[in-house]
Structures are given as structure tokens and as C-alpha cells.
Design brief:
With 244 residues, the protein is α+β, with helices and mostly antiparallel strands. The chain has a domain of 170 residues: Muramoyl-pentapeptide Carboxypeptidase, domain 2, CATH 3.30.1380. Helices cover 37% and strands 16% of the residues. It is built from seven helices and ten strands. The strands form two sheets. Strands 3, 5, 6, 7, 8, 9 and 10 form a seven-stranded mixed sheet that branches. Strand 6 and strand 7 form a beta hairpin. Helix 3 packs across helix 5 and helix 5 runs antiparallel to helix 7. 34% of the residues are buried.
Length: 244
């Protein structure tokens, strides 16, 4: 009986020790802690996808993330109607906070798109630009955010995330040294997926976007995306993402 009690006590002490160590580890690695708030400075971790999924469906939490990131976005009144009602609309501010200009300027999208851009620029775009091209990105050229249409532009089928301004199409990156890296021109630079620094940079930014957006479509998806990266924050059951 006494040995059984001692074994139980030792087991409880071991479990408590493991639990305490896990708690300390999570405190030091909040990117893996599902209960810690999403913070721009934290690298992508095990819990980041779940936190982003919650942010996409909770406008208040999304704005709290922007506030924690010192991103001051200008909220706009709702616009449009029906399937194209844009009731979550703001001037994108995350790029400017990262010292990156958007061209055309004044782009409007959802809070979730703004949050995704902030994370992508911080943890994907700029690190890849420095590592591969030796220069920071100064400007991002885009084809727009909102467009009241269905996917493929037809009269039937699923409505595009662009219909509610929940997407952005990225066409090119302009570096601080003046170089312009365009999706149409440089995706296949050097003769294929492994050729050329420009191509490698574009693929790195595509891959990194998959950590910050729920849908990422590149020239490898289909011909309609030969000249841009489509990034959106679609809400899906289970939080699954499309990255192509």
C-alpha cells in the first residue's frame, strides 16, 4: 500500500513538473500557444493558423490585432449590396506601417486582408527579398481588391472573394534599389521553377503567403493567374487553406 501511494505521488509530481515546463515553454514561444493573442512580431507557429482563422471571423479581434501591431487603419462605411455588400471595409494600412507603398494607393479591403498583408510583409516578403535579392521591397503593385463578380467572371457559380473586398491581386514588387520583379515576366525566369533569383523570390513570397492567407493562387494554378498572385481571406469550415 505504501509503495503504491509513493508511486502515485511520484507520478503526480512528474506530471506537474512536465506541465510546469510546458507552461514555461509556451510562455517563451507564444506562436505555438493557442491561448496567446496573435502578435505581429511572433514568427509563424503551430497555433498561428488557428488564430488567423479566428481573426477572419471576428472583426473585433482583427482590429485588436492591428492595434497591437500599431497599424492605424481608416474604417469606411459599408458599400455595395447583396452578394457584393462590403460591410467590412478599410483603407489598407499595413503596407505603409512596414514602409512599403501600395500602387495604386488607397486600396480598400477587409480587416483580415490588412492583417494578412502585415504578417506576410513582416515574415515572408521582406526576409525573402533581403535573403535572395539583397534589397528590401519598397513598393507592391496590385490589380485591385474589390470587384463585384463571380469566380471566372461568368453569370453563374461561386462568388469571388473580390466581390466583398476580401482579396488582393499582387502583380509586382519594386525593390529599394529600383529593380522591379513582376509575376508575369519573372515567375519562370531562368527556365523553370529552379531558375533565377527573381523566380526564387516570387516563389518564396507565394509560399510565405500561405501562412497568412486562406487562399493563395499563383501562375502554377492556371493561366488566369499568370500575371499575379491572388491572396484572399475566405472563411472555410475547418480552417483549411488553398495554396497553389
Amino acid at each position: 500500500m505504501r509503495r503504491s501511494i509513493i508511486r502515485s505521488i511520484v507520478g503526480l509530481l512528474c506530471a506537474a513538473s512536465v506541465g510546469a515546463a510546458g507552461y514555461v515553454w509556451l510562455k517563451d514561444h507564444p506562436e505555438h500557444d493557442p491561448w496567446a493573442p496573435l502578435v505581429l512580431g511572433d514568427p509563424p507557429g503551430w497555433a498561428s493558423g488557428m488564430k488567423l482563422q479566428a481573426l477572419r471571423g471576428d472583426r473585433a479581434e482583427c482590429r485588436a490585432f492591428l492595434d497591437r501591431s500599431l497599424i492605424v487603419a481608416q474604417a469606411l462605411p459599408p458599400a455595395g449590396e447583396g452578394q457584393c455588400l462590403r460591410d467590412d471595409r478599410q483603407v489598407l494600412a499595413s503596407a505603409a506601417q512596414a514602409d512599403v507603398a501600395l500602387a495604386p494607393h488607397g486600396a480598400q479591403a477587409t480587416c483580415a486582408v490588412d492583417a494578412g498583408l502585415a504578417l506576410w510583409l513582416r515574415h515572408g516578403v521582406q526576409p525573402a527579398a533581403r535573403r535572395i535579392l539583397g534589397s528590401q521591397v519598397a513598393r507592391i503593385e496590385h490589380f485591385g481588391t474589390n470587384n463585384c463578380r463571380r469566380i471566372g467572371g461568368g453569370s453563374a457559380g461561386t462568388w469571388s472573394e473580390h466581390a466583398t473586398g476580401n482579396a488582393i491581386d499582387i502583380a509586382a514588387f519594386v525593390l529599394e534599389d529600383g529593380r522591379r520583379i513582376g509575376v508575369l515576366k519573372d515567375w519562370g525566369e531562368g527556365g523553370g521553377a529552379d531558375g533565377g533569383d527573381r523566380s526564387a523570390f516570387l516563389r518564396a513570397t507565394r509560399d510565405a503567403a500561405c501562412d497568412s492567407f486562406s487562399t493563395v493562387l499563383s501562375p502554377e494554378y492556371n493561366a488566369a493567374h499568370a500575371d499575379h498572385l491572388h491572396l484572399d481571406q475566405a472563411q472555410r469550415a475547418g480552417g483549411w487553406a488553398a495554396c497553389r
